[in-house]
Amino acid sequence: MGLGLPAPSLLAYLLPSRPDSSGASVGLVVERLFQLAPAPINGDGRFAPSPTGPLHLGNLRTALLAWCCARSNGGRFLIRIEDLDQERVRPGSATQQLGDLAALGLEWDEPVVNQSDRMALYDDAIESLRAAELLYPCWCTRAEIRGASSAPHGEPAHYPGTCRELTTAQLQERRASGRQPALRARGGQAEITFLDRVHGERTDLVDDFVVARNDGAPAYHLAVVVDDAAQALSEVVRGDDLLDSTAAQCWLQIQLGLPRPSYVHLPLLRDSDGKRMSKRDSSVTLDGQAELGHAPLQVRSELAASVGLCEPDEPLDDDQLLSRFSSILVESTE
User: Which helix H or strand E contains 228, and what residues bound it?
Assistant: First the structure.
């Protein structure tokens, strides 16, 4: 008996034969991991949720595979709470998320760190970029950027360079307005090539991007790069909705002299209409599944089955799961 999801059923989310965004079978994800890019020397990895609500099954599958990647290679598995956007943080969410991970048997290495406790690290990185003259103040709103670049609504807009080369008079005028600027990095359409263990070699251009918001908070790109280096991580496993942001992060690693981890961008779980799973749908959380009579380890088996590690409802303890994961990787390289 599979997980109890409302129509469309579980298979609309977890069917192994469902293609991912690149047209490959989601069930082949594990087999593809060693084929397209080399494994890291050590397996230190992480799972980094935002405490904005309960983890849904897509989040939990990413956590499961991140745990498998780390533990199968003898590495640490770290948890980082990405709580910089305090307006979206929901009290108690981080505790609930840790409880869900523990219920699935995904034990982590201490300590759990919160980004909100690491502001000095981000400030140092920003000052390094500023000293290298790689930053400039930007007063543009998202609406202004979209309008200036003629990007359709809902699509990411390339920054048109409005604030990149302001004159002294223009800077004084904007500062006099009272609006606080963000800090934007001079990506300058730099060409960055990186390897991903699912998607292979990829080359992207780096637009000018925000590294500090107008409220002073560090932006995601900067914080995640600083944290991954500070925690000495060798591999980043996350959803492929973040694939497009990786080049900017690699650019920051180059500018800050930080090591580049191995990347694994996993297909997202979607329904039969191609829509992403949402935390607002309580049935796709661990608590929601419990209300439908499905134990956490049953959920873990279903998630493992969705990427070809086992059969649905096949019980696997930690050692069996890691052995299966490792054996599939070895077979895929022979």
Answer: helix 220-230
Cis peptide before 181 (omega within 30 of 0): no
Beta bridge mates, 109? 78
Residue type, 160: P
Measured CA to CA, the distance from residue 15 to residue 305 in angstroms comes to: 9
What is the phi/psi pair of residue 165, to 5°? Answer: -130, 55
DSSP 296: H
Cβ atoms of residues 134 and 128 within 8 Å: no
Per-state percent for the chain, helix, strand, coil, to nearest 5 = 40, 15, 45
What tens digit of pLDDT does each residue of 94-142 get? 999 999 999 999 999 999 999 999 999 999 999 999 999 999 999 999 8
Residue 142: its pLDDT value, please? 86
Query: pLDDT tens digit string along 258-310?
Result: 999 999 999 888 765 667 766 666 668 999 999 989 899 999 998 998 888 88
Q: Is 134 part of a structural domain of the chain? A: yes
Structural tokens at position 5: 């999801």
- Is residue 106 situated within a structural domain? yes
Q: How many angstroms separate the CA atoms of 185 and 179, rounded? A: 19
Lookup: tokens for 165: 């080369």
On the 0-12 / 13-18 / 19+ scale of CB atoms within 10 A, 231 is middle
97 domain-assigned = yes
For residue range 184-202, list pLDDT tens digits in order: 999 999 999 999 988 889 9
Q: What is the β-pairing status of strands 190-196 and 200-206?
A: antiparallel
Query: How many folded domains does the chain comprise?
Result: 1
CATH number, domain with residue 90: 3.40.50.620
For residue 311, is it within any domain? yes
Task: Give the span between the Cα atoms of 176 and 157, in whole angstroms.
Answer: 27
Provide φ and ψ at 261, rounded to 5°.
-75, 170
Q: Is 232 a residue whose pLDDT tops 70?
A: yes
